[in-house]
Specification:
alpha/beta; single chain; TIM Barrel; binds (1E,3Z)-4-hydroxybuta-1,3-diene-1,2,4-tricarboxylic acid; 10 helices
């Protein structure tokens, strides 16, 4: 089936630069997606957007180009609860990819076990109204209780402004909880602003909660500008990422978010996104934890 993209959809960046930052051996891109291809893995009827295709082979080619060794492929909301595109990518990854699925309470135990065998290690709960329809928390809690015995974790995706309302639910989850994109704070408030402060409190008080230090391109107000002739893009997001990497070094993950759904202004150069990493992880030890040790512990042990 061929699909017409959402009007104004921006396709992924075709010729990303080669990063100047050399990733450590075994580095994991711990947040990326595949889209379709639509004629093989149709997009879900309930989707809120229709993307371009972004296949597993294109993802694996990007991985080689950037210098990553492995991927964690997160089921994108345009596929609803149909995880076939992710599972297909995992099965064809030569053990170099793990996955995070989206399921509802109708999922059968056998399906969970098959996904586990393919390399799925988590489920994602999405709270962004522009991406998904509402699911009652009681259903999400039921799913979390069912995947906990498999050793899976829960990935949560929400806007910083909604954390207060979601706090009790997140802190009651029986698994490790991995927060997408630093809890999506409003960076204009600064690291001392109320949204990021509350997020830091969440990580400080709950040792099972992890953070992806991802998506500077989504969060940034200043954008991908090089300052003072230096390669220092997404400058305004650096203090947020740095704070998390330096204070919660054993509970942070990095990732590209390729193929970057729903960006309306510009598509980032993935090479520049890799070059952002040493600004937030300033020592080889922090880089190794962020890019290798932490994702390996969570997804490959
Ligand atoms: C992201 C962010 C977005 C989309 C999705 O599953 C998705 O559709 O996650 C977004 O639109 O902000 O993590 O890729």
């Amino acid at each position: 089936m061929s699909f017409e993209k959402t009007p104004g959809w921006l396709d992924w960046y075709a010729n990303p630069s080669k990063p100047k930052f050399v990733l450590p051996a075994g580095a994991v891109d711990a947040h990326c997606h595949v889209f379709g291809p639509g004629d093989q893995f149709p997009f879900a009827p309930e989707r809120k957007y229709t993307p371009c295709d972004a296949s597993k082979d294109q993802l694996f080619a990007l991985r080689e180009h950037l210098g990553f060794d492995k991927n964690v492929i997160v089921a994108a909301s345009c596929h609803g609860t149909d995880n076939r595109a992710v599972v297909d990518a995992l099965l064809n990854s030569n053990n170099k990819a793990r996955g995070v699925a989206t399921v509802n309470r109708q999922v059968k135990d056998q399906e969970l076990e098959e996904m586990h065998a393919a390399g799925v290690r988590g489920v994602r709960f999405n709270f962004l109204k522009r991406l998904v329809d509402f699911t009652p928390k009681e259903e999400l809690m039921e799913i979390a209780a069912r995947v906990a015995p498999l050793g899976w974790h829960v990935v949560v995706h929400f806007e910083g402004a909604d954390l207060a309302e979601l706090w009790d639910f997140f802190t009651a989850l029986p698994t490790k909880v991995v927060v997408d994109h630093m809890g999506r704070p409003n960076v204009a408030q600064g690291v001392d602003g109320p949204e990021f402060k509350l997020f830091i409190k969440l990580l400080t008080e709950h040792e099972n909660i992890w953070s992806k230090v991802t998506c500077p391109e989504r969060l940034s107000v200043t954008g991908p500008r090089a300052l003072n002739g230096e390669q220092n893009a997404y400058q305004d997001v650096v203090p947020f990422g740095r704070y998390l990497v330096e204070n919660f070094s054993d509970r942070v993950l990095s990732g590209t978010d390729w193929p970057h759904p729903n960006l309306s202004k510009y598509m980032p150069d993935d090479g520049l996104l890799v070059d952002w990493i040493p600004h937030i992880a300033r020592t080889p030890e922090l880089q190794r934890k962020l890019l290798v040790d932490n994702p390996m512990r969570l997804y490959w042990s």
